[in-house]
Structure formats: C-alpha cells, structure tokens
C-alpha cells in the first residue's frame, strides 16, 4: 500500500507528465467524452482543458502526485480561480456546435453551485488506468483533506462520473445538486465541511 510520504507537489519539471496522467485517467469519463467523442479531438483538447481548469494548482504548490506520477490531484486554494477565458477559447474551438449551448449552461450552473465562502476546489483528480484500484486516489484525497481540516475550510468538487460518487462520499463529501443540460451526462456538485 502506498504511503503519504509518496506524495509530492508537482513542479514545472513534471507538469507535462502530470497533465498526461490526468488525460489518461479521464479517457473514459462520461462528460469528457461527451465533450470530445472523437479520440483525436479528445487528445488534442484535454491537455489544454486540464491546464486551464487545474493549472493554477501548479503555481500554488497544490498539484499533488503519487510516486511515479501514477495519480494526480489538482486542488485550487481559496480565492484561486480556473482560467475561464482559456476554457472559453477551448470550448469555442473544439466542441461540436450541437453541444455548445448545453456546455455553456453546464458551466454557468457549475459556477452557481460553488460555495460563496472561501473553499478548496478540486477540479481534477485521476489515476493512470494502469494503476486504478491501488489506493492512490484515497491517498491523494486524505492528503489534501487533512490540509482543509487543519485550516477549517470547506472542500468542493463536481463529479463528472456517477460511478465515483461513492468514493467522494467515503471522504465526507455530500451531494448538493445535479447539473445536466440537453444531451449532457450528469455532473454532481459535492461539498465537504471541514472536520
């Protein structure tokens, strides 16, 4: 079983490898593949999406990886935002026009579900499919949530895969809604109060 000591902050030297671990981990994700059903389009767009939605974690020392970059979690500290203009550009350039409006509505509702008080936000957590089931996600989650608890700050995420909701619930997250528009798969906002 991996240990907490196997977790480190992803710096600029391993940023690309960290992003690709997340890309691999989301390769079968319902929402991501609804967004980019073509494999080539997914592989072109998803790295840019990861950097726009979770990239600030690298600058703030809150991009965490396990040994061998087998799993990664990009946490945004309170007050740190995703790069919305980069996300807008990615969506405009890469989405099928038939889902553009649904995606805009999803993103609008995601913003409405974010807590108004200071919170830690987890836009992305994933493991290389070769390493799923090894406890790496649990290790990453416990590591970050310990910081949330020490600071007494809420944690927030949206689950883009219904199969992962029990995992988040096992770490204290509670479902606070459901986001779905048109043909999109459901997105589940979840909140965890500090312990």
Automatic annotation (TrEMBL):
N-acetyltransferase domain: residues covered: 110-195
PROSITE patterns in UniProt: GNAT
Give the superkingdom in one word: Bacteria
Gene3D superfamilies to which the protein is assigned, alphabetical: 3.40.630.30
Species of the source: Bradyrhizobium huanghuaihaiense
Q: Which Pfam families match?
A: Acetyltransf_1
Q: Which InterPro entries match?
A: Acyl_CoA_acyltransferase (IPR016181), GNAT_dom (IPR000182), Trichothecene_AcTrans (IPR052523)
Q: Which UniProt keywords apply?
A: Transferase
Extract one GO molecular function annotation from the record. Answer: acyltransferase activity, transferring groups other than amino-acyl groups
Can you say what this protein is called? Acetyltransferase (GNAT) family protein
């Amino acid at each position: 079983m991996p240990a907490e000591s196997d977790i480190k902050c992803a710096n600029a030297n391993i940023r690309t490898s960290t992003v690709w671990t997340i890309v691999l981990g989301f390769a079968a994700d319902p929402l991501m593949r609804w967004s980019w059903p073509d494999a080539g389009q997914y592989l072109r767009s998803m790295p840019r999406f990861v950097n726009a939605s979770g990239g600030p974690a690298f600058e703030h020392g809150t991009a965490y990886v396990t040994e061998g970059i087998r799993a990664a979690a990009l946490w945004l500290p309170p007050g740190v935002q995703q790069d919305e203009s980069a996300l807008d550009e990615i969506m405009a350039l890469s989405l099928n026009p038939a889902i553009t409006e649904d995606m805009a509505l999803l993103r609008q509702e995601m913003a409405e579900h974010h807590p108004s008080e200071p919170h830690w936000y987890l836009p992305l957590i994933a493991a290389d499919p070769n390493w799923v089931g090894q406890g790496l996600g649990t290790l990453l989650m416990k590591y970050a949530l310990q910081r949330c608890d020490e600071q007494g700050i809420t944690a927030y995420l949206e689950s883009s895969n219904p199969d992962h909701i029990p995992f988040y619930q096992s770490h204290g997250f509670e479902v606070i809604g459901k986001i779905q528009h048109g043909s999109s798969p459901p997105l589940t906002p979840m909140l965890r109060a500090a312990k």
